[in-house]
Amino acid sequence: MSEQELADAIIRHALDLQRLSAHEEAEAVRLLRLMEDDLKRLMNAETLSELRKRELNAVIAEAEKIIDAHYGSLAAGVDTHALMLAVAKNTADLLSAAFPRIATQPPSPERLASLSKEVLIDGAPTAAWWERQAEDTAQKFAGQVRQGVVNGETNERIVQRIVGRKPRGDVPGEPGIMETTRRNARALVHSSIMQAANDSRYATFKKMARFALGVQWLATLDGITCPICVALDGEMWDFDGAPIKGATIEWQGTPPKHWSCRCVLTLVPKRDALEAAMPGITEELEARGGRASSLGPTGADTSMTGYLRRAPRAQVEEQLGKGRADMFLAGKLTLRDLVTGTGRPLTLKELQSR
């Protein structure tokens, strides 16, 4: 496996993680739909506009209990430890295939268990973000109910402003506060999965520190990649966070850089150390079509887009779905849909088996 092939394999696994994210995001939306049903039943049990302040506060307090219970289920939805175990094993297998004469082992289960408890998104643990989303949903729910009561609105109208209303004829639709709730939950699920996966991959890369210069940032180069990630694409750092190979941007930590980020890291091998441990590896990599003469930046098309354009059609169809694959290969579709997953979603069990 050449350096280019190693990067491609990491990108392929990142695409599988997008599909896992799609599955988990759909499950989060399902749980929120159940929460909506419980809230609607609560509101329809009383004529809200006729409730006195104490009775109204009791309804809102009961709604908070419902919201907290469902968000507790959401918080427990993604098994980050199992995910990190799967990603670490996959990464170690890829490194073993790339450098078969070097024993590559993933971090210990105990180390990964510890890392899974330290997964941070934008500086805060995943559990804290779920708590914030629960509090935000409860506050918005209470605000809409109180506003509706003050305005003398019917229960139906209050429910519409909370869960939304589909367009009917000339009557336009209305998103409701739950639309934002669902969007925030999906972003948190995606970011949790990508953060755990990248932390696990980076920890596995560090096991190869003796034979690697460091890591390289790979962005998804399509029409919605943010300017920050475009600038980071191709930048490299050693395992102490110092820029290498002419990189000009400071170490940013492991991806994701922001909510719904799709960036990944790949390994930058150390030529001299590899040659010393595996005499003849330079010629071997060159024979595989690699770039062993530089062992620096990978090819300009080392991105998810470039990878899929090099991959066999059957593989592109398997990852994107046939219709999307046809449009992508014809230049009519970018990878925008990967923000929420494309093709058939994967469960964690399926990801582990791959």
Describe this structure in words.
By secondary structure, this protein is mostly helical. Helix content is 58%, strand content 6%. The protein has helices at residues 3-44, 53-75, 80-98, 109-116, 126-150, 155-163, 177-206, 227-232, 271-277, 281-287, 304-310, 313-320, 322-329, 348-353; strands at residues 120-121, 124-125, 212-218, 236-237, 243-244, 264-269. The protein has one domain. It is built from 14 helices and 6 strands. A hairpin with a 5-residue loop joins strand 4 and strand 5 (243-244).
Task: Tell me the layout of helices and strands.
Blueprint: H1 3-44, H2 53-75, H3 80-98, H4 109-116, E1 120-121, E2 124-125, H5 126-150, H6 155-163, H7 177-206, E3 212-218, H8 227-232, E4 236-237, E5 243-244, E6 264-269, H9 271-277, H10 281-287, H11 304-310, H12 313-320, H13 322-329, H14 348-353
Antiparallel strand pairs: 1-2, 3-4, 3-6, 4-5
Task: Jot down its keywords.
two-stranded antiparallel ribbon; 14 helices; mainly alpha; four-stranded antiparallel sheet; elongated; 58% helix; 354 residues; 6 strands; 6% strand; single chain
Overall geometry: elongated
Series of H and E elements: HHHHEEHHHEHEEEHHHHHH
Structural class: mainly alpha
Note the beta-strand portion. Answer: 5-15%
Q: How does the major sheet shape up?
A: 4 strands, antiparallel
The structural domain count equals: 1
- Number of beta strands: 6
- Relative helix content: 55-70%
In short:
Helix content is 58%, strand content 6%. It has 354 residues and is mostly helical. The model is unreliable at 289-298 (pLDDT under 50).
